[in-house]
């Protein structure tokens, strides 16, 4: 599951919003995108500097330490990695991981009033190890809480899963159909020697060369490519492609095709004919046509690096409805009731009855009205 996006990553907008203790090393290190590092003999007034989150030694009463992370991309969590890299004599004995789903942007104190769902039961940890735990709970979450028992250090927390956007934020708007935030994801590619293609689907500008997708130098015939699943069936209208930071290693040109059945080689049709691109440059190309598609294939000729790839358009009506239905069915019950009583104005009893009847085959009429 670690090939799925890290929903907690700082690059996707994740944030460490609270911890009960961070005496030796700051909680924000947990969601850094880059792998943890270690520099020996780098002592601060508090001790050896570690690239992670580290709490003080517990004395007296037994207990545990905890940290809360707001996911940059709320969604379905498939696995959690508690990486104790370089923590050898000071890693926690065990951990638990929980998640919750909350409307809006709650403060850490407000989260105390919401129910938490156990994702990882009390489980032993190994030091200097990427401890991986599968998650079987099928609900959409917005926050996770890592608890370590009794204390110690964790280098990185990875929350791998499938982003599931809130349809209320997308209603009646064009959107980036390949954005990781919106549920886009690379499903296959020809090469990812230097860096993976999902990098080019991240939000924001590329920070440096390895923050995009870069292939090895190709020798011989052919070219490199990536197939990307869209957020849903859609008709794209604009392509944006950036080669920022790629100066001596940008592609010479690109092509783009679309398909509703990517496993059928004959189903692919052209969206953008061969277009030359420049190094270290943002490019924008308008598309014509009105054929819906669920996947696109970006070909770079012959090889090289792409910093960011955007594909702007609108979901088809059926795709938008399907996305909204999936979202409603996968909301934790507490949040689903809040949505129905708050946005839709239903009584507590009516909302509870609709939520108890899930999974719904059709979107409730009250939700259809507010989603347009």
CATH topology heading of the largest domain: Jelly Rolls
Contiguous helical run count:
5
Low-confidence stretches: none
Order of helices and strands: EEEEEEHEEEEEEEEEEEEEEEHHHH
As a percent range, the share of strand residues is 35-45%
Helix percent reads: 10-25%
Number of domains: 3
Rg from alpha-carbon coordinates: 23 Å
Q: Could you tell me the number of beta strands? A: 21
Based on helices, strands and strand pairing, what is the structural class?
A: mainly beta
CATH structural architecture of the largest domain: Sandwich
- Specify the CATH homologous superfamily of the largest domain: Galactose-binding domain-like
Helix and strand topology:
Layout: E1 15-19, E2 43-44, E3 47-48, E4 53-54, E5 65-83, E6 94-100, H1 108-111, E7 117-124, E8 130-134, E9 140-149, E10 153-154, E11 156-163, E12 175-176, E13 185-189, E14 213-214, E15 224-242, E16 253-259, E17 269-276, E18 282-286, E19 293-301, E20 305-306, E21 308-315, H2 317-330, H3 333-342, H4 348-356, H5 365-371
Antiparallel strand pairs: 1-5, 2-3, 4-10, 5-8, 5-9, 5-11, 6-7, 6-9, 12-21, 13-15, 14-20, 15-18, 15-19, 15-21, 16-17, 16-19
Helix pairs in contact: 3-4
Overall description:
Keywords: Hydrolase, Purine metabolism. Pathway: Nitrogen metabolism; (S)-allantoin degradation; (S)-ureidoglycolate from allantoate (aminidohydrolase route): step 1/1. GO terms for molecular function: allantoicase activity. There is one protein chain. This protein has three domains: 10-163, Sandwich (Jelly Rolls); 175-315, Jelly Rolls (Sandwich); 331-371, no CATH class. The protein is flat, with a radius of gyration of 23 Å. Strands 12, 13, 15, 16, 17, 18, 19 and 21 form an eight-stranded antiparallel beta sheet that branches. Strands 1, 5, 6, 7, 8, 9 and 11 form a seven-stranded antiparallel beta sheet that branches. A two-stranded antiparallel ribbon has the order 2-3. The protein is built from five helices and 21 strands. The protein is mainly beta and 372 residues long. α3 (333-342) packs across α4.
């Amino acid at each position: 599951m670690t090939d799925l996006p890290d929903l907690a990553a700082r690059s996707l907008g994740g944030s460490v919003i609270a911890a009960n203790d961070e005496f030796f090393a700051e909680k924000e290190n947990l969601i850094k995108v880059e792998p943890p590092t270690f520099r020996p003999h780098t002592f601060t007034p508090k001790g050896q500097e570690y690239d992670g989150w580290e709490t003080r030694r517990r004395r007296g009463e037994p207990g545990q330490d905890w940290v809360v992370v707001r996911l940059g991309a709320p969604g379905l969590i498939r696995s959690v990695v508690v990486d104790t890299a370089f923590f050898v004599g000071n890693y926690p004995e065990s951990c638990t991981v929980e998640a919750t789903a909350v409307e809006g942007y709650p403060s850490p104190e407000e989260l105390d009033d919401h129910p938490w769902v156990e994702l990882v039961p009390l489980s032993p940890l190994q030091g200097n190890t990427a401890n991986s735990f599968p998650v079987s709970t099928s609900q959409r979450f917005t926050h996770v809480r890592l608890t370590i028992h009794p204390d110690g250090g964790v280098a990185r927390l990875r929350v791998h899963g499938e982003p599931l956007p809130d349809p209320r934020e997308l209603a009646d708007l064009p959107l980036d159909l390949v954005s990781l935030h919106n549920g886009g994801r690379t499903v296959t590619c020809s090469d990812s020697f230097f860096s993976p293609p999902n990098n080019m689907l991240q939000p924001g500008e590329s920070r440096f060369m390895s923050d995009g997708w870069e292939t090895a130098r190709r020798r011989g015939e052919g070219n490199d490519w990536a197939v990307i699943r869209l957020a849903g069936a859609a008709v794209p209208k604009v392509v944006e492609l950036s080669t920022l930071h790629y100066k001596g290693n940008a592609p010479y040109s690109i092509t783009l095709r679309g398909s509703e059945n990517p496993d059928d080689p004959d189903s692919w049709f052209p969206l953008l004919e061969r277009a030359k691109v420049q190094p270290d440059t943002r490019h924008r190309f308008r598309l014509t046509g009105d054929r819906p598609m669920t996947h696109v294939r970006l070909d770079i000729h012959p090889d090289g690096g792409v910093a960011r790839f955007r594909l702007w358009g609108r979901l088809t009506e059926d795709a938008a409805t399907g996305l909204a239905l999936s979202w409603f069915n996968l909301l934790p019950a507490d949040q689903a009731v809040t949505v129905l009583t708050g946005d839709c104005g239903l009584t507590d009893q009516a909302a509870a009855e609709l939520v108890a009847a899930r999974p719904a085959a059709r979107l409730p009429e009250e939700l259809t009205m507010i989603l347009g």
